[in-house]
Design goal:
mainly alpha, 2 strands, two-stranded antiparallel ribbon, 15 helices
Length: 359
């Protein structure tokens, strides 16, 4: 019954329309690429493969030079541990046998950035159905029972998670399939190490391209789920759609500002990496070499961001359960939300009152 209400014909139509538009946009972006560009890419890849070991050795030598010099005397333990980890990781990278690949389509699908926005829009269509049900009497009947409220939020979370996984899988596989078809990729080359492609030259994961695609699907599920859980939380504490959208974009704008202005070496860099836009760039962190230190512990930045994402999703789920379990909050908004709404309406009224009347 719950699934039928969420996946009505209209919503399913919107979801598949967005998927079709995404496929069309991707196809039109790359169907006119000239053969000269493809040849140039493969020429650069051949050069990259020939110089791969030398480039890795340069990083190892640079790390060892700094470790053996006097430059570390006044440095923190973090700097030394980071250099030790860098040296170890690149020694392991040097052992990976790289070779040329016929995977130009994989590279183009990897570069395509619109897909995640279409994915997010598709899942937000499902989240919006949760807010629409508040207008039904059935919603209030369910909220009359504590077990009904608890079961409702858990059931919706599972539906959202499975829907998100299916939609992301559909988008990612169709994009890579179209790209592989356009550029005649050799699917056997998808079993070669990711480091065989210049785009993943400093990725420390010992996996092949096919496994990287699976990892990208999981990363996109995390990204979309976090944004949609945040939007769902807002729909539960705010009833007016325009205020929900305003708050959602306000939070995103603040997070984007912090992500861009805080430097990697700043003492406030925790606000840069524990950030929804760091999550949004999770695939980039998976593809490149980047470390993050907590006290003297050094680990990959992608691992920190992934942990933050999963914890944030679970925290939002707990907050939703607590919100649903408070029977006295049904149909009511928190005081802080009402205060913000009144402030917005006051500012809006002041602006409109100063505008000249048009006869």
């Amino acid at each position: 019954m719950e699934i039928r209400k969420i996946f009505g014909k209209r919503r399913l139509g919107i979801i598949f329309l967005l998927w079709f538009v995404n496929c069309f946009c991707f196809y039109k972006s790359y169907d006119s690429i000239e053969k000269a560009e493809i040849k140039n890419y493969y020429d650069k890849q051949k050069e990259y493969v020939l110089l791969y070991e030398a480039g890795i050795q340069e990083v190892i030598d640079a790390s060892e030079t700094i470790l053996e010099s006097d430059l570390l005397k006044n440095s923190s333990a973090f700097v030394e541990n980071n250099l030790l980890k860098t040296r170890y990781d690149f020694i392991q990278l040097k052992k990976i046998p790289v070779s040329t690949t016929n995977t130009f389509g994989f590279m183009k699908a990897y570069e395509y950035s619109l897909g995640i926005f279409f994915c997010m829009a598709s899942v937000l269509v499902i989240v919006s159905s949760f807010a629409d049900e508040k207008k039904n009497d059935f919603f209030l009947i369910l909220h009359a029972s504590k077990n009904g409220r608890y079961n409702l939020v858990i059931r919706r979370f599972l539906i959202l998670l499975l829907s998100c996984a299916f939609i992301v899988f559909l988008y990612e596989t169709s994009t890579y399939a179209i790209s592989a078809g356009i550029f005649h990729d050799s699917l056997g080359d998808y079993l070669k190490p990711v480091q065989s492609m210049p785009e993943f030259g400093q990725c420390i994961l010992h996996i092949n391209l096919f496994e990287m695609l699976i990892l990208y699907i999981l990363a996109d599920i995390i990204i979309v789920m976090l944004f949609c859980m945040l939007f769902w939380m807002l729909t539960e504490i705010i009833f007016k759609k325009n205020i929900i959208i305003l708050c959602f974009f306000g939070i995103c704008a603040l997070e984007l500002l912090l992500y861009n202005i805080i430097r990697n070496q700043s003492v406030f860099n925790i606000l840069k990496y524990f950030n929804i836009f760091a999550v949004f760039n999770l695939k980039e962190y998976l593809s490149t070499y980047s470390n993050y230190g907590i006290f003297n512990l050094i680990t990959e930045t992608s691992a920190i961001i992934s942990a933050f994402s999963v914890i944030s999703i679970l925290l939002l789920l707990i907050l939703l359960i607590l919100k649903y379990n408070k029977s006295d909050t049904v149909g009511k908004q928190p005081k802080i939300v009402l205060t913000v709404q009144q402030f917005i309406y006051k500012v809006k009224g002041d602006i409109l009152s100063r505008l000249p009347l048009v006869l």
